[in-house]
User: Fold this.
Amino acid sequence: MRITSKFAAVAAAAALVVTATPAGAAPSPTPGNPAPSASRPAVAQPLPALADALGPELTSLVEALRRDLGLTPEQFLAQAGIGERLAEARPRWEQQFRQSFGGVWLDEEGTGLVGVVAGAAGDELRDEATRSGFTVKDVALTTSELEARERQVIKIIEGTPEDMQDLVTDVRVDPTRNAVVVTTRGGEAAQLGNLDARLRDLAEIDMIREPTVDGIEPATTRADDPDGTGAAPGSGGDSGSLGSLALLNDAGLVPEGPMRTVIDLLAGLTPGTGSIIDGMMAQTMVAPGTPVPEDQPRAIESVPAPAGPVTGGTGYQVGVPGGILECSTGFNGELDGKPVVITAAHCAGADGTRAALADGEEFGTMTRSEREGIDTALIAVDDDVADRFRTNLVGDGPDSTQGIIGTADPVVGQKACKTGFRTGFSCGTISQVGTTIDVAGTRTISNAFTVDLCALPGDSGGVVFSGDRALGISSASNVADSVTCADADAVARTAGFTPRLSAVPIADVLAAHP
Assistant:
C-alpha cells in the first residue's frame, strides 16, 4: 500500500479505458461462447467523438523515444534490461537483507541503484549488488522502516482537520529520496505550516501549487482554474483545461478548424446527453435516433481498422446502454490455446458485451471483468479471427511496432512507453510503484504504478511496456479532462504538476486470471 483511497486529488486520476496481456501468457479461465443476447456496438450510427477533431500526428516509437526521453531504441532496451534485473532481485533482497535493504531504482542516466544502510549488516548486500553490476548508494532507512513511517504519516494525516486532509493528494515511499513524500495541492500557508509541523522528521512535503497567504490567492489565474474555484485537474472539479478552452470560445478567440470543432463539441456537454470523457475512456453517448450532421467528427470508425494482425494499442469499441465506449486493445495472449486480449474492466461495459474494431467488425466478447482494485477484463477472441490476434506486437503499423517477448515488474526511474489509439506512442519515467490510486472517487487501483507521460480518453486498455517487456495496462490519468496532450502539458506547467498515467501491473492482471 502506498496511499489510502481517502486521499484523492491531482494524483487521483480519471479512468482511461484500456486493455492488455502479454503474448504467451496464461490469464483467466476459459472464456465461454458469446451469448445470443450479448450487447453489440452501435456502429451503424456515426457518432460524435473527439478523435478526428484532435487528429494529432501519431509518431513512431523511435520518434517518441527521441522526443520524450532523448533515447535511441538500443538505449531503451538496455535500460529496460537493467530495470528488469532490479525488479527480479528486489523481493529476495528485501526479505534476505531486511536490516539493510533500502530499495532499488534507476537514475536519470539509467544506472541501476541499490540502497544499502551503512554498517556490517549491509556488507553482504553491498557485495552482491556490486557483483550484479549495480551501483550501491548509502541510505539511512531500510524499506521496512520507510513503510512503517508511511503508515505513521497516514495515521497522522487522518487525524488532522478535514480541510487539511483535503490538501493531501498522495502519500508514498520514494526510494530515490529514501523518504516518505506527502504531496499537497496548495492551500493557505498556515495550513501547510501546521501540516509540516505535524510531519516533521517523518516526511517530505511536495506542493503542486504555491500556497496562499492569509487566504488571498496569487494575482495570476491558473489556466486550469479560470473561475478561481481551486479545482485541480483530475480532482473532480468542474474547471480544468477544458474550462479554459470554453472561455476562449466565449471570447471568440478560437479560429475555425479542428479546435473550433472540439470547442463546439464540448459546449454544454452533460452526462447521458452528449460526449462525455470518463477518465481515459472515450465514452460517446447519443440518444437513440439522434441524427448526426455530416460535418461532425466521427467515432473511431473513421480510423481505418487493421486488415492484418491486430496489435496492442488498436482502437476498439463496445456498446453500452445509451452509447459506445472507445478504448485501445492491450497485449494479446493465449488461454488453453485460444487467443484472448487483456483489457481494462471499465472498458468492458459488462460481461457478454461484444467488442468491435473501428470498421464495425466484431471480434470478441468481454468476460471476467474485475473493476475494483485490479481494473481488468478479458476479450475472448472469436474463432474466425483468431489468427489475427496471434501476435506479440504493439504499435500502430508495420513501420512502428515493438515485439513483446515477456513481462517485467516496474521499477522507479525506469523508462517506459505506452500506446493507444488516441495519442499513439508516448514515453516517460516511472515515478511510483505499489501505490493506491483513487480514480475520481469512482474506484481505486491497488498496487498501481505511474508513468510521467500524457494519456487521454481512448487510450484506456492500451499497453505499457519497457523495451521488449510488458509492464501493465493503462487505467487512469490525471490529465484525462484535457483535449490534447499539448493542452495537458501547458496546464501542467502552469499548475506545477506533471501529466501522469496510472497503470495496473501486468503481474497483477495475470494473477487475477489464473
In short: The CA atoms of residues 2 and 435 lie 4 Å apart. The first strand starts at residue 14 and ends at 15.
